[in-house]
Design goal:
By secondary structure, the protein is of the alpha+beta class. 44% of the residues lie in helices and 16% in strands. A hairpin with a 2-residue loop joins β1 and β2 (40-43). The protein is globular, with a radius of gyration of 25 Å. Residues 1-23 form the signal peptide.
């Protein structure tokens, strides 16, 4: 009986293919087709890049047959998504692409450094990466569709735990709960005035006859929409931040706004059209240079907040709710959550942000750090204080202590089986061929069903 498909591994492979390492090539020069699923291809470079992704992150790569199978699985999901008319909204793809480009700019220091590192123009990189991001979103949507009805009960978790021999229970790393209060560095009036004037100059150029979309491609720092001429697509009311939406809804079609400031920067907005409760706009976004922002203001503010908490004049959770500028954690009393499980308990190991790990290593449970500068995922300069709320030391897996982790494992296993069943039922709906070089991998029984053309590419 064929082994069950590793659901988590399939997800991981799809992430690797859209991670910033994509496109660097890692020395790969051969781009031979090694597998085909209907009209979707797996190239040798795809396999090598997936392999190198593990190496670059100091992880032991799986066997290449396992990597190839996972790549074929992703292509099969894309093929089936096309058959089943599963699509993703373009603005979701644009948003994800924007985040990835911002992350890359942060890692490389500047867009110029990205171009030099990849040996390709930004436009070419965005185009290539956009295709990969869109494919990943479709694969994720297919996975969600397949596993949407998968549920587990506490009884199933207990059965799983009781089925593990007591001398084989895994050793769990330390679990911690951490809160944060964040304050962002603010641009000076001079910096904002300079950005405002640049946008007014761009507005004048449009008024003098230049194309808004062309200027958006050239100047906008919203990477996701810039490549589409600043086009944000149709948005329902309430989807955009209030300053942007308020300004956009006051415009007539083709009319431009004054300069609008939001938490993302400064915008020049042009309304394209409205359609019922939706509106279609594009914009040019300019952001301050986050590397040059003064951190003294947020540091002083957090110093004062910390003093109040330490003196027990206010509880940390209340202070986070009232004063933290990180909206994703403020409403939860500043409590951080594991991005994979959603649990407030996070493993204190190599998966944790390094700066946070090293800081917690010097703190006692119940203590609050001094203000610490850090860079947010979208590249903003900020300062935060950390609250070391609780810690469970490393231990042998325990049903009560580790219920959430055990629950995640059981749910993942059940999803594995659901996806495995789906593959078995769906494999006959697509035509899979594998290059003779990889016949020994025995992917879905395609060893005897290989197209001769694959061997000559």
């Amino acid at each position: 009986m064929k082994k069950a498909i590793n659901y988590a591994f399939v997800v991981l492979i799809s992430w690797f293919l859209t991670s910033p390492v994509f496109g660097q090539g890692q020395g790969v020069s051969v781009n031979k087709i090694i597998a085909k699923v209907d009209n979707y291809y797996v190239l040798r470079s795809d396999l090598e890049e997936a392999y190198q992704s593990y190496v670059s992150q100091n992880q032991t790569p799986p066997q290449k047959c396992q990597l190839l199978e996972s790549l074929v699985i992703n292509k099969m999901m894309l093929a089936k998504a096309e058959i089943d008319s599963v699509v993703v909204e373009e603005k979701l793809v644009d948003s994800e692409l924007d985040q990835r480009m911002q992350y890359m700019a942060q890692q490389f220091g500047s867009e110029k450094n990205i171009v030099e590192a990849y040996g390709k123009s930004l436009e070419m990189l965005k185009s290539e990466l956009r295709t990969q991001v869109k494919d990943q979103k479709i694969v994720q949507k297919m996975q969600q569709k397949i596993t949407t009805d998968v549920k587990i009960t506490p009884r199933e978790v207990r059965k799983f735990y009781d089925g593990i021999p007591k001398d084989s229970l895994p050793y769990m790393p330390a679990d911690v709960e951490i809160g944060q209060i964040v304050r962002f560095a603010k641009p000076t009036k001079e910096q904002k005035d300079a950005l405002r004037q640049r946008l007014l100059d761009i507005k004048k150029r449009v008024q003098d006859g230049e194309d808004f979309a062309k200027l958006a491609k050239e100047f906008s720092e919203d990477v996701g929409s810039a490549q589409n001429g600043g086009d944000l697509g149709y948005a329902k009311r309430g989807m955009m931040v209030a300053p942007f939406e308020g300004a956009a809804l006051k415009l007539k079609p083709n009319e431009m706004s004054d300069v609008v400031e939001s938490e993302f920067g400064l915008h020049l907005i042009q309304l394209i059209e409205t359609r019922g409760a939706e509106y279609h706009a594009r914009h040019i976004l300019l952001r301050p240079d986050y590397n040059r922002l003064d951190l003294s203001g947020p540091t002083h503010s957090l110093d004062s907040i910390r003093t109040l908490i330490v003196a027990d004049s206010i509880k940390f959770e209340k202070a986070a709710h009232d004063f933290s500028e990180d909206k994703s954690t403020a409403d939860a009393g500043g409590l951080l959550r594991d991005p994979q499980s959603g649990s407030s308990k996070m493993a204190m190991d190599g998966t944790m942000e390094y700066a946070m790990f090293t800081m917690l290593d010097t703190m006692k449970v119940g203590s609050i750090s001094k203000p610490l500068p850090y860079r947010t995922e979208d590249g903003k300069s900020a300062v935060r204080i950390l609250y070391f709320k609780s810690k469970v030391p490393p231990h042998t897996a325990d049903f009560k202590l580790d219920f959430e982790k055990l629950q995640t494992i059981v749910l993942s296993n059940k999803k594995n089986r659901a996806i495995d069943d789906w593959f078995r039922k769906s494999v006959s709906d697509v035509y899979i061929t594998v290059d003779p070089e990889f016949h020994s991998c025995r992917i879905f029984g395609t060893t005897q069903n290989s197209a001769a053309s694959l061997g000559s590419n």
